[in-house]
Amino acid sequence: MKAAYSGPLERVDETRWRIPRDYKPGMRVDGIIFASETLIESIRADMAPEQVANVAFLPGIQMASLAMPDIHWGYGFCIGGVCATDPAIGGVISPGGVGYDINCGVRLVKTNLTYTEVQPRLRELVRRLFQTIPAGVGRGGKYRFDPQETRRLMAEGPRFVIERDLGTPEDLLHTEAHGRIEGADPDAVSDHAVQRGSQQCGTLGSGNHFLEVQVVDAIFDEVVAKAFGLELNQVCVMIHSGSRGLGYQVCDDFLALFRGMPGKYGFTLPDRQLACAPADSPEGRRYIAAMRAAANFGFCNRQLLMHQAREVFAEVFGRSWRDLGMDLLYDVAHNIAKLEEHTIDGQRKQVWVHRKGATRAFPAGHPEVPEAFRSVGQPVIIPGDMGRASWVLVGSAGSMHKSFGSTCHGAGRALSRTAAKAVASDRVVEKQLEAKGVIAMATSRGGLAEEQPQAYKNVDEVVEVVHRADLSRKVARLRPIGVIKG
Amino acid sequence: MYELFEHTADLGLRIHAPDLNTLFAEAGQALFAVLLEDLATVRPDKSRTFCLANEDRELLLFDWLRTLLLAFDEDHWVFCRFDVHIDRSTLQATAWGEPFDLQQHRPGREVKAITYHGLQLRQQPDGSWLAEVIVDI
After folding, report:
1. Are the C-beta atoms of residues A343 and A322 closer than 8 Å to each other?
2. Residue-wise pLDDT tens for chain B (137 aa)?
3. For residue A17, what is the domain's CATH number?
4. What is the three-class DSSP state of A362?
5. What does the mean pLDDT of chain A come to?
6. Which residue from B minimizes the CA distance to A76?
7. Is residue A341 part of a domain?
8. Which of A75, A206, A252, A269 is the best substitution to test chain B (most B C-beta atoms within 10 A)?
9. In this predicted model, what pLDDT tens digit does every residue of A139-150 receive, in sequence order?
10. How many structural domains are present in chain A?
11. Would residue A421 count as lying in a domain?
């Protein structure tokens, strides 16, 4: 049985709970968890809060070690964690604070189709998506890049594939960092990583990754929804994947390299998985350059997944994807570290914001929000579970002083994979979803059971917390109607 | 002998064996039992040898599994049988299997990486060995 957290959790206000710095010697700042009264009970049930406290040990950490309401037990960092470190005072960069799946993220593609138009052809659409989009273990993609091209993908991001007609320049404008994080150095990425990723650009992967056909079923903010081009009954496509084997290998390579860093730079860590190096050290700089390269690969992966989805829609509905209005609303990363400017204790500072299962949520007016949305704020895409809902939120002002411009990233797991399978089998889950009007297909046995709705917290509750905390505000709720998984 | 245990979003491998060589061999099997739906579909037709060194036995186990994962993910090999010899800090191993083939091997779960979180390898009072490794799914 898993252990429950038994340390302190003091209520700060309606949505915040504190783990005081004196809980463990070595903590440099408090831990702060955003949660409701209901959610905090489930959060206490495992060791995730202990991991929030452990992150507070990181050299150079600013303000607090933060966790979003979808927090769950990870390895080293909890999933749903946010921390910022100041490189000017020896602040570290931590591969564990980004995660294995560098630039795991989500994109939402709109259509001008309504549910009524799609419903009669839904089964055919989902089947065609499932046949076309590679998912699961060991299935390579239809796009092949040799090592040299893979390195160009990492340097240039989706621009490289858009030049080959696999997207449009507008797609870039609606991708975080325009799909190209500056300072990426493909030569900092090992040959093993390049090899692992070479056949995987444009593949979904497995685990919690998915492609879903969804319908907008509620609008909470008419003005922002209009700015985002969302309306009731509109069909959209949500894509959740990351940098595939390439990113995993970059993380793995650097965790191994960073084993010796605490001794070399004179700090102690409570968990080996928190391995890190000063951001401004040769080792730190090399990881940053490799992580950025893997992140650009991740943007390309989602670009190619979107392109394949556009082609399937065009084929099924007999119109070009442009005629179907399949524009990208936005693409956001939720496993990443970014150098950003934030105000901390009244001072403007450049800090390394680690988002491990957390989404950037910049408010209206921020220069990094695409021009089309700058008057309302950055679109935030929150994938939920395959039976209930996913969300579109908008970045809000509170995020800038409470959470380094960050919000939640999903529902957060409530049951382990083994526990979920004991609740219901693939077949039962498939039937339950079908009864709700959702057609779901997965490549692996256990794929649907492990990812069934009951395995997740209720995403609506998670979203309610970040809305009330003013980290991001509710714009639209989408319900799934078609799901493909690895 | 190995079993899987739960860890919220990921998966744990628990391996129990009378000696260290057997433990490492079974850890290899446990990994491929996660990657494939049925390990029995792998024919031990071809072999590959591995040689690794690490002063820290836990990290040697970590490196062994990480090397096998890379052999699967990078070179597309699947293995079902392992012969491992550990002498102080070095490991020499032969793994038997064949190239991965979607027609023959039904894939199981994608393992992103072997993690250091909760990594344990220890000798039991009765002289046997026990290891726990959490893999990222």
Report:
1. no
2. 899 887 777 889 999 999 999 999 999 999 999 999 999 999 999 999 999 999 999 999 999 999 999 999 989 999 999 999 999 999 999 999 999 998 999 888 889 999 998 899 999 999 999 999 999 98
3. 3.90.1860.10
4. coil
5. 95
6. B117
7. yes
8. A75
9. 778 899 999 999
10. 1
11. no
Q: Which residues of B touch A195 (CB under 8 A)?
A: 74
- Residues across chain A: 486
Residue B127 has which token pair?
A: 């002289």
Q: Which position has the token pair 């259509």? A: A111
Orientation of helix A282-317 relative to helix A122-132, angle to 10°: 140
Q: Is the dihedral of CA A415, A419, A423, A424 positive or negative?
A: positive
Which residues does residue B79 pair with via DSSP β-bridges, in sequence order? B97
Buried b / exposed e along A72-84 (16+ C-beta atoms within 10 A): bbbbbbbbbbbbb
Q: Are A1 and A40 in contact (CB under 8 A)?
A: no
Task: Map tokens 């690895």 to a residue.
Answer: A486
Nearest Cα to Cα of residue A249 among A306, A208, A302, A287: A287
Query: Domain residues for A30?
Result: 10-88+104-414+456-485
Q: B2-136 — its CATH code?
A: 3.55.10.10
CA distance B14 to A329: 44
> Testing the interface with A: which of B58, B61, B110, B114 to mutate, by most A Cβ within 10 A?
B110
Instruction: Compute chain A's Rg from CA coordinates.
Output: 21
Would you say residue A420 lies in a domain? no
Contact in structure between A93 and A277 (CB atoms under 8 Å): yes
For this structure, is A409 an active site residue?
yes
pLDDT digits (tens, 9 = 90+) for A403-434: 999 999 999 888 888 888 888 999 999 999 99
Nearest-CA distance B72 → chain A (Å): 9
Residue A171's SS3 state is helix
Q: Which of A101, A196, A206 sits opposite B74 (nearest CB)?
A: A196
B9–A419 CB contact, under 8 Å: no
A365: left (phi over 0), alpha (psi -120 to 50) or beta: left
DSSP letter at A281 equals S
Yes or no, beta carbons of A272 and B116 under 8 Å apart: yes
